[in-house]
Inverse folding.
């Protein structure tokens, strides 16, 4: 299934590959999705760039992002080896504040991309793309880039997912 990831491009795709995450929660339904990251190398205005889409482990216990963080570490270790500019986007299922991203540029919306309701023990009850009473707001969907500048990063309002889509333009 490759996490249900897809990258569509109006620019020529030179290559593509999917890399599954080594660390996954076998007790979660996410194990059926084969979490990982999809990469395509494209030619954008005459230059080669790598576009990476990911979907990290979802979390059912408030503030337990250990698997997501290990998956992010695997992804960032991989992109350190890239010799061309890249953009990473996707559903990180963890706040951009949870890990150091000093080597990359962060682009995010100013509004939440998901709202989560927890029970009194901190277990996740429900998620929503719109604000509801007793739901906490989070920004779990964003972009990280290296040698690429984005502009007009914003959310698109929709009820088709529990996450609000985030879009941006390469400058």
């Amino acid at each position: 299934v490759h996490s249900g990831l897809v990258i569509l491009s109006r620019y020529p795709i030179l290559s593509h590959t999917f890399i599954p995450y080594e660390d996954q929660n076998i007790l979660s339904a996410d194990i059926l999705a084969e979490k990982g990251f999809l990469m395509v190398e494209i030619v954008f205005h005459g230059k080669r760039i790598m576009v990476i889409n990911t979907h990290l482990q979802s979390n059912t216990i408030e503030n337990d992002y250990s698997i997501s963080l290990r998956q992010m570490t695997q992804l960032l270790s991989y992109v350190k080896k890239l010799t061309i500019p890249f953009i990473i986007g996707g559903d990180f299922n963890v706040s951009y504040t949870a890990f150091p991203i000093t080597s990359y540029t962060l682009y995010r919306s100013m509004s939440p991309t998901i709202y989560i309701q927890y029970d009194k023990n901190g277990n996740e009850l429900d998620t929503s793309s719109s604000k509801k009473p007793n739901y906490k707001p989070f920004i779990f969907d964003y972009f990280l880039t290296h040698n690429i500048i984005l502009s007009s990063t914003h959310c698109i309002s929709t009820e088709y997912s529990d996450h609000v889509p985030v879009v941006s333009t390469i400058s």
Notes: The chain has a mean pLDDT of 87. The first helix runs from residue 66 to 79. The longest strand covers residues 36-44. The radius of gyration is 16 Å.
